[in-house]
Each structure stands twice: as C-alpha cells, then as structure tokens.
User: Fold this.
Amino acid sequence: VQRNRRRKRMLLDIVNRFRESAMALPDATVTLNEEGDIVWWNDMARRLFGLKSPQDLGQRIDNLLRHPSFTRYFQEGDFQQAVEIPSPVHPQITISVRVIRYGNKELLLVGQDVTRLHRLEQTRQDFVANVSHELKTPLTVVSGYVETLQDSEIGQDPRWRRSLEQMAQQTERMTAIVDDLLYLTKLETKAVPLRKSAVNIGELLYSVRAEAEVLKKPELAQFKFVVKADEETWLLGDEAELRSALSNLVVNAIRYSPKGGEIELSWYRDGNVGKLSVTDQGIGIPEADIPRLTERFYRVDNSRSRQSGGTGLGLSIVKHVLVHHDATLEVRSVVGRGSSFTCIFPGDRLQVAANEIPAVKDRYR
Assistant:
C-alpha cells in the first residue's frame, strides 16, 4: 500500500510538473481527443482563443474557433502546414495554428502569435511598392533621353554609340525589374481571386507560344516549340495571372536553352489534378538550388542570368500566381539535360469544356 501511494504521488508530481511547464509555454497549447473535443489548455490559449473553464471543457474546437479557414483546415484533416486566423477575442492579433497528432489518436493544437511578423511583412511590401513607384518616373525620363540621343547625330558618332547602347540596355533592364516588383506587390496585396471564369488553357498555350516566337532572336538561338494540350479540360481562375505565370516559365526556358533546343508546353489531366508543364533541353539546375528557385532575386548562375537579361523575379511571380489558384510548383531538372516546371492544380478547379468550342490549334497554325 505504501509503495502504491508513493507511486501515485510520484506520477501526480510528474503530471503537475508537466502542466506547470505547459502553462508557462509562450505559445497557445490545447489538447484534444480523437473527436476534436477540448481536454485541456494552457494560459496562453485562454488569452489568444478566449477559452473559459469549465464551460469549454469537452466542446469541439471548431465550434469555438469558427473562422472559415480553420474550419476547413480542421475538417480536411491535412495538418502538414499551419493556418493563419485572427484571434476570436482580439481580431487585431494574427495566430498561426498547427494541429499535431500524438499518442493514442490524440491531437495537440498549437497557436503562435505572428502579428509582429505580419507587420514586418506589410512594412516590407509597402517599402518595395513605394520605392518601385518612385523609381518608375526617373527611369522613364532617363530612357527617353537615351533614345533621343541615339536618334541624334551624337548617337551616330562611333565614340558614343557603344556607350549609349549600354545605357539603353541597363535602363531597359532596370525598368523590367521595377515592373516585376510592382506586379509582385500587386499579387501579394491582392485578395485570392474567386473562380470567376473558366480559362481555355489550350488556347492560352498556343497564344503564349506565338508570343514567345517573337522573342526568338536568330543570332542567339533557334527553338522548336511543341504544344500538347487537352482542349476539353479548362481551368477556373484568373486568365491574366495564368498568362503571366506561363509566360515567365516560357521566357526562362528560352533564356536557358541552347541553339536548336526543343521547348514543350503541355496541359493535361492526371487523375484528379490538372498539370501545366514547360519542359526544355537547357543547361539544367543543380538539385541543391531547386528549393530556392522561387526566392526573389535568387540566381543559380549570376553571370549567365545577367547575360540573358533576367530579373530574378519570374519564378517568384509564378509562385504567387499558383498560391492564388490553390496550386503547387514541381521542378525536375538534370544538369546538362534540361528542366521541367509543372504547375499542379486541384481537381475542383478543372472544368469540362462545351462541345461546341472549336479546336484552338487550328487558329494558331
């Protein structure tokens, strides 16, 4: 009996120490049973989520956290990523919520106050947007004067011709960077678009191919474009954003493909998802660099990127467009053999086209 009493006291001490340490955690912590009913929470969860004892004990967590994003996140049961919601008691506070499975089918909900990070991110976005707008006007003025000088007698002078050409190239490059930054800011601050229209991806592929062929310069490279499109499957989304993402992928393929290379544009349904791919036979990308490709201004090869005129923002634009369309980017590459960029769209964004729609490939021959 004494041994049992000592054992119970020891176990009770362990439980009390655990609860004291959990109560002191800086993050909100809530334990749930298999059905999602609340079993216990710490002090930070009380402050951030507004949980009250004893009335909230045994309540389902999605009955108390009623934000649509959290409800969808909890009901889907895919807890690989966190979801951000406003605090139910302090709407100005943003909480990053993550659910973790543990023990005997139990759940641990962890909430972290990320308000400061959101403010810093907003400050960064505002700074980039303001600087880009301020740079736009002087760059336009400089570009105009350079063009005027190139068309004048000074521009015909061999001593000045090369200098003016370099000034024009660098001004054009800076303008392209500013334009991309402004477009990125627009994507970041824009609300996720509704599925407002069905986009004919097949027609979009042929249209972008026609635009890309204008970019080809015979002295740099000769390309062969191959388009493979499932014209019966359309995509619900924003056509302008999708065109921007596809154009950036195609331009990258052109920049990093050798003379005589083939670039394939494809759109097809694969099970419950739609896949939009751009495949080239270019220089390829080392495996270590692939995870960082969508970072702003990240370059695998700085010297090659500058020679080709890239801004380092194209794949960042692609990433933000895909986020708006609930999609992901898959990159496969072999150094020296080429790369494949595949945009994977969920099945609920796919739509079967009407039968009376004529084949688009005939219009772009």
Summary: The chain has a mean pLDDT of 82. The CA atoms of residues 24 and 178 lie 47 Å apart. The first strand starts at residue 28 and ends at 32.
